[in-house]
Design brief:
The chain has four helices and eleven strands. It is an alpha/beta fold. The chain has a single domain, classed as Glutaredoxin (3-Layer(aba) Sandwich). The strands form two sheets. Strands 3-2-6-5-4-8-9-10 form an eight-stranded mixed β-sheet, covered by helices on one side. The longest helix is centred in the N-terminal third of the chain and has 17 residues, at about 50-65. The two termini are about 20 Å apart.
């Protein structure tokens, strides 16, 4: 496991990179599918990472709390050959076992992760109604899988977004396993 901190590629105000990716529902999902939402939370995640496993309940809480206003989308960009736990069938299995009800998509080519500048899992990006980046960073302040969160960073920032308040800190790096890039 290579531990990484998310880094800035997309800057505040940058547009959400377009994508068309297959979901665990076997349908193709694109950015335009989420145009009617007041926010879009794109989280690069996977099945095997202990940092993601530790955040699944927090991500589900975000989805349940804001599902009528904010689209929550998980994207798995890991190499499924080197990491079979992250293959498409295991994505379906993990979602079923964990009760994941938000869209969970596979980035087979890893091009979407590259366009976002995603580095780790989880690596969350929050966009406004117009598709502009407003926050890139942590879900909460529990930075190790065994830590207990005392601050719900993403929920606080989504609340500010929906109330049209300024998000003071637009980058607050997430920490997790590195995205498992394919060998070229």
């Amino acid at each position: 496991m290579v531990l990484l901190e998310s880094q800035i590629k997309l800057k505040t105000g940058d547009k959400i990179p377009d994508f068309s990716l297959k979901g665990i529902d076997d349908k193709i999902h694109s950015v335009s599918d989420y145009k009617d939402y007041d926010g879009k939370l794109i989280i690069f995640m996977c099945n095997h990472c202990p940092y993601v496993k530790a955040k699944v309940e927090a991500i589900k809480e975000i989805h349940e709390k804001f599902s009528d206003k904010v689209a929550v989308v998980g994207i798995n960009s890991n190499d499924p050959i080197a990491f079979p736990d992250d293959n498409f069938e295991n994505m379906k299995k993990t979602a079923s076992e964990k009760g994941i009800k938000f869209d969970y998509l596979v980035d087979d080519t890893q091009e979407v992760a590259k366009r976002f500048g995603a580095m780790c899992t989880p690596d969350p990006f929050l966009f406004d109604k117009n598709g502009n980046l407003v926050f890139h960073g942590r879900i909460d302040n529990a930075m190790k899988p065994e830590d207990i969160a005392t601050e719900k960073t993403m929920i606080d920032n989504i609340t500010k977004l929906l109330n049209q308040e300024k998000i003071q800190k637009d980058f607050d790096p997430s920490i997790g396993c590195s995205i498992k890039w394919k060998e070229n």
